[in-house]
Amino acid sequence: MKKMWMVLAAAFVLAAAVWGAPAQSVAADKIVLGMPVRPPVMVHLPVFYALDNDIFKKHGLDVEIKFFRGGVATHRAITSKKSGLDAAWVPAPIAMVGITKGSGMKFFHSMAFLNEAQMAANDQVKKPADLRGKTIGIEGRGGYSHLGALAVLSTAGLADKDVNYIKTPPPARVPFLLKGKADAVVIHVEQVLVVKKRKPSFNKLMDLWKAMPNFFYGAFIAPSSKINSNKDAYVRFAMAMMQSTRSIYKDKAGYLKSANKWVRPVYKKNPEIMSKTYDVFVAEKIWGVNNGIPKASVSFTADYMKRLGKIKGKVPSYEDIVDTSVTKSALAKAGKI
């Protein structure tokens, strides 16, 4: 841990000339950003930490947030010409499938590529094998929670045919589990802590980032046409997000301040949950500090979606999915750590 802080500190010194430049030195660009779920989940807070600490402004950006009902809805919005979005944070697998269908999108940064989620279950489910015949709450086939469920099932040699599914929108997953409508659900770290607080006999069944370590969680995407028309703005957005995630690793107090401002009231009433969630993220290195789009994760997830039948035809290459001109330029300017 000490070594990580030393590396981060060195990176801050190297990047000071870039990140310390006044906002007036670059043109102010408006970026309308789509985010899933309002209030935001805690893994998404680097965006809001950047807003609260004027990090976007320091990079000459005026970022406006629009919220949608989950990752699928956010992806649907960014691919619609009527939404007015310039970028969006979406589940990476869904975006990959969309790209193969001609959505015209490209990944240009990720603040968290590890699959930040856990499966929680009632006290009848002690291990993944116990899920056979049980009911799992998901938002829909092929969605984020369904893919997470499959990751856990696969560790016990189980598949869709071995379980039952019930449709649960993201805000309903915790209530469905607590009220017995579902035996297990895929939810975020802070939500699992809420479940455990209310029903201590319930279990955290598995960390998804361990069940499938190369599975790609989420990415910022944008239409290729918009990136090409104002590439420098997207480069600066990626740099701002790198500054935000790097800062958060050293600024628990600042992170918790943003969390207390943005997240759901249940966490504000239980600040120990916010603190424990942060500690998990830091220990597991959930947030990326560079461009956040490793080739191994892109390749694995594209191949996985092909095996599931979600990608038809040829599996897309890394360059088909990622705008490397943005990722390389932003990383070169921010400095790799």
What is the rounded distance between the termini? 14 Å
Q: Note the total helix count.
A: 17
Q: Main β-sheet: number of strands, strand sense, barrel status?
A: 5 strands, mixed
Tell me the structural class: alpha/beta
CATH homologous superfamily assignment of the largest domain: Periplasmic binding protein-like II
- Tell me the domain tally: 2
Q: Order of strands across the biggest sheet?
A: 2-1-3-10-4
Description:
This protein is an alpha/beta fold and 337 residues long. The protein has two domains: 2-114 and 215-334, D-Maltodextrin-Binding Protein, domain 2, CATH 3.40.190; 118-211, Periplasmic binding protein-like II (D-Maltodextrin-Binding Protein, domain 2), CATH 3.40.190. The protein has helices spanning 2-19, 45-52, 55-58, 71-78, 92-100, 144-154, 173-178, 189-198, 208-211, 224-229, 231-248, 252-262, 265-268, 271-284, 295-307, 318-321, 324-334, and strands at 29-36, 61-68, 87-91, 105-109, 118-121, 135-138, 164-167, 184-187, 203-207, 218-223. The strands form two sheets. The chain has a five-stranded mixed beta sheet with strand order 2-1-3-10-4, sandwiched between helices. The protein has a five-stranded mixed beta sheet with strand order 7-6-8-5-9. Helix 2 (45-52) crosses helix 11 and helix 2 (45-52) packs across helix 12 (252-262). The longest helix has 18 residues, at 2-19. The two termini are 14 Å apart. The model is unreliable at 5-18 and 20-26 (pLDDT under 50).
